[in-house]
Write a structure and sequence with these properties.
The chain has helices at residues 34-50, 71-78, 154-168, 180-195, 200-203, 213-219, 226-240, 274-282, 295-299, 334-358, 481-493, 497-508, 513-533, 539-559, 581-592, 606-616, 628-643, 657-660, 677-689; strands at residues 2-4, 30-32, 56-63, 83-89, 100-105, 114-120, 125-137, 140-151, 245-251, 254-260, 269-270, 286-289, 305-313, 316-325, 568-573, 596-599, 620-624, 650-654, 671-672. By secondary structure, it is of the alpha/beta class. It has four domains: 2-178, 2-Layer Sandwich (Endonuclease, Chain A); 213-357 and 378-395 and 417-446, Beta-Lactamase; 481-558, Methionine synthase domain (Methyltransferase, Methionine Synthase (B12-binding Domains), Chain A, domain 1), CATH 1.10.1240.10; 561-689, Rossmann fold, CATH 3.40.50. A hairpin with an 8-residue loop joins strand 10 (254-260) and strand 11. The longest helix is centred in the middle third of the chain and has 25 residues, at 334-358.
């Protein structure tokens, strides 16, 4: 569906979302290329998609012609979100997509120069608001960068949504009940995802988290030991305003103090005592007003209330973070939300370290021919809802927001009764995450779970396989070639290898390998290359795509053995040529057609050609050239072959250089390859059969 903004503003007038973050200090503002925005936005998209959040998503793409770069990702999101609206200048007719509304902006208005992504749901909200700024050198515009901010502020998200609804003269669909604990824990997931992204340092992604300084401080210790990170977390909580902080490690039926802020020594406690024991046993946060003489009041003498949050490492409760609060009512305390975020981030960091230490080989590589059998990247986050009140205060009803597609949590909800910090209970059984296909995603942090009184009916622990693995693909995906191409292209330009692997895995389960090469990998590579030529795709994204595609093709090439007795072909790249895709593809299809193939790779020097021909005696020599310089070098190759005594190999050549300079084809003593690669190889095979 396509709509239009009803107003017809004059040049440079109209609403602007970027102004909503105009008061962000200059040193904290984003000033990044489009690559960075795509990666940041992709983290938000993946969270919504992975957790099936019924969010309202608003996406500003400058102009509709740029939307095709993101169409595959948005198609996936439209099946999950409550609504998806795309804004841009209508320079082309947008595609028809179920569940997606396109709003045509008036040309030359501020929103036509703004790249934005707004996510609003009961359990997570975010706003990435930026505007394009031309960078000039010597008065000449070099490229665009984007200035703005990534905001976790509920007020900013609401104002942005209201502004867009007013522009369309439509009522804004309200989010009635918000789960602030779930939101904070999901932001910890976003923070960890950005900090560990392969492009984090190159694109300087961490400053985008200016709105969450307490998470930023902890991330600075992410490469240190667990003890140092825990100590930093205690310091961060103290700076945020908590009144006493203590981190326990769970050792069977005992909680041993690991790090604390008090100057006095701390003793171990039973895993059934106090708020910490309740959180450890049930695997959900426990909040309470502190009673005089209680264990928690003795541990946190300056606090009026407290919160205990379990720390999940690789899907199991590793320990508990206990913090005192100055508010008598802990459920509405902003510092309690920060404690939840810190505990979630600690679980992310420690899970990541555990993966690296125990299973470094589990990380997926570009060369993986198929996606791993089981799935889920390292704990994407722990996402909570409001737990139960403490001993002296009546229980509140928590927002019951949990995606129906997720399995029910193994923990009982609080049936309207207050949590008692001094209740004795049986020995704790370590709870595990109830997320499908992975660890570190406890159900309470997805919403709808509250602390329950200690119970002996806690579900037994599940064994979670270590390592980074991939989730099973969605069985309801449209697996037509156009949709697979759009999805893979959208993932690759967002540097999202995980989603690209999903598409690869789905295609491998439906289509023949030959079709996947010609109908998926090569069209995506060509489309990204054309996007780069138009200035729509960055050099880094084009290289990332090439590396992914090359890896898949090389893996396939190495997976097949030569046919005994077949014609021998030597294939490679011309002198000074570094682009391998064409040569790899030719090698692969020739091997499938019965040729014995020796692949020489990049930059085959002319000085070695004659020696190689005399030593190997191939029946076919094939070289590719993408650059004009490399194409010129093939003239000498034809002369070299002419000097070799018979039998001489058939010399075949091709590449983009010969489309840019067709006149070069006639200068080379060989056969120029043009057309469908399958037909080319069939003709070659027929020639040698005769």
């Amino acid at each position: 569906m396509i709509a239009s903004s009803s107003s017809t503003p004059s040049r440079a007038t109209g609403p602007s979302l970027a102004r909503l973050v105009g008061d962000v200090p200059v040193e904290r503002r984003l000033h990044h290329p489009a690559d960075a925005l795509v990666i940041i936005g992709r983290q938000l998209e993946l969270l919504v998609q992975d957790e099936h959040l019924p969010a309202d998503l608003s996406f500003g793409v400058l102009r509709f012609s740029l939307f095709r770069l993101h169409q595959g990702r948005i198609a996936q999101l439209s099946r999950v979100c409550r609504s998806v609206t795309v804004y841009g200048e209508a320079d082309i007719e947008p595609p028809t997509m179920p569940g997606v509304t396109f709003v045509a902006l008036q040309p030359n208005t501020p929103l036509c120069q703004e790249w934005f992504l707004i996510v609003d749901s009961p359990g997570f909200w975010a706003a990435l608001l930026t505007q394009a700024v031309a960078e000039r050198t010597g008065g000449t515009m070099r490229r665009y960068r984007f200035e703005g901010a990534l905001s976790a502020d509920e007020r900013i998200v609401k104002r942005a949504g209201l502004l867009l609804s007013l522009m369309q003269q439509q009522p804004m669909a309200p989010v009635v009940q918000r789960d602030h604990f779930a939101n904070k824990a999901r932001w910890a997931q976003i923070a960890y995802g950005l900090a560990t992204h392969p492009e984090c340092k190159r694109l300087n992604l961490l400053p985008s988290l200016y709105d969450l300084p307490y998470l930023l401080e902890i991330l600075t210790t992410a490469e240190q030991s667990d003890e140092q990170t825990l100590a930093e977390a205690i310091q961060v909580l103290r700076s945020a305003g908590t009144l006493g902080e203590l981190c326990y490690r769970s050792d069977g039926n005992v909680l041993n103090p690991a790090v604390w802020s008090s100057t006095r020594p701390m003793a171990a406690i039973s895993a059934t005592q106090g708020l910490a024991g309740q959180a450890a046993q049930q695997g959900v946060p426990a909040l309470g007003t502190l009673l005089a003489g209680s264990l928690d009041q003795e541990l946190l003498p300056d606090a009026l209330s407290a919160i205990a949050v379990p720390i999940y490492v690789q899907g199991r409760v590793w320990g508990v973070l206990l913090a005192g609060l100055h508010e008598p009512e802990p459920h509405d305390a902003p510092t309690a939300q920060i404690v939840v975020a810190v505990a979630a981030l600690l679980g992310q960091i420690m899970s990541g370290r555990a993966i690296q230490q125990t299973s470094p080989a589990a990380m997926p590589s570009f060369a993986a021919a198929t996606a791993p059998a089981v799935a889920a990247p390292p704990s994407r986050a722990v996402v909570p809802t409001v737990p139960a009140n403490g001993a002296a205060s009546p229980a509140k009803t928590a927002p019951t927001f949990s995606p129906p597609s997720f399995p029910a949590a193994p923990f009982q909800a609080l049936n309207g009764s207050a949590a008692n910090t001094q209740v004795e209970a049986p020995a704790a059984t370590a709870p595990t995450a109830a997320a499908p296909g992975g660890f570190g995603l406890p159900a309470w942090m997805r919403g709808g779970q509250v602390a329950a009184p200690p119970s002996s009916t806690v579900a037994p622990a599940k064994q979670i396989p270590p390592g980074l693995v991939l989730a099973a693909p969605d069985p309801f995906n449209d697996r037509s070639w156009p949709m697979l191409q759009k999805r893979m292209m959208g993932a690759l330009i967002a540097f999202d290898q995980r989603s690209a692997e999903y598409v690869w895995q789905e295609a491998c389960g439906v289509y023949a390998t030959e079709e996947i090469c010609t109908e998926l990998l090569m069209p995506v590579q060509i489309a990204v290359g054309e996007g780069w030529h138009r200035g729509e795709v960055s050099v880094a994204a084009e290289h990332f795509t090439s590396r992914f595609v090359e890896g898949k093709l090389l893996t396939l090439l190495n997976a097949y053995v030569d046919s005994p007795g077949g014609p021998l072909a030597v294939i490679g790249c011309a002198q000074n040529e570094l682009h391998e895709l064409g040569a790899i593809m030719l090698s692969l299809f020739m091997r499938w057609s019965g040729f014995r193939v020796i692949y020489l790779g990049q930059n085959v020097p002319n000085t070695t050609i004659e020696e190689a021909i005399r030593q190997i005696r191939p029946q076919v020599l094939g070289l590719s050239a993408t650059t004009i310089e490399a194409a010129h070098s093939l003239t000498e190759v034809g002369q070299i072959i002419a000097r070799v005594e018979p039998p001489r190999p058939m010399f075949i050549f091709g590449g983009m250089a010969f489309y840019e300079r067709p006149d070069l084809r006639s200068r080379i003593a060989g056969q120029f390859l043009e057309g469908d690669i399958r037909q080319i190889v069939r003709q070659l095979a027929d020639t040698f059969r005769k």
